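User: If you would, consider this record:
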Amino acid sequence: MRSTITPLIMAGSLILAPLHVLSEGAMRILECSIEKQCDSSATCTPDSGDLAFNMEPIKLDDTGAGNYLISYAHTNSEMKAMSSAGPFIWNTGAEIHTLLANSETKFLWHRLSLSAKPQASMQFLNSAFTQ
């Protein structure tokens, strides 16, 4: 009987572990393939390529909301998350980035340039968290 209870307790603690690990700085990686690119006029074209967003928690609450360091390509920035599933928001220079989950595997990456003539672009991504 004792040998059955121990694995159940360990399994239960593993289910709750992800939130605890996130608060301790465990890196989350969102690996994506680009499916489509759209401009601010809603003109869309097929696109391709791979992209990985590395998200290192700085300070999070129990829901995963809080601050992360995000890095991808040659970009590093501080990012805010409203929950562990996003939305995720960060700035790079005069550009605001928003990463929104549409489903478990579909994300929308919106970029808004705050130049004299603001412009936006969107990429539709097929993604999965690997950590």
User: Anything to note?
Assistant: The longest helix spans residues 2-23.
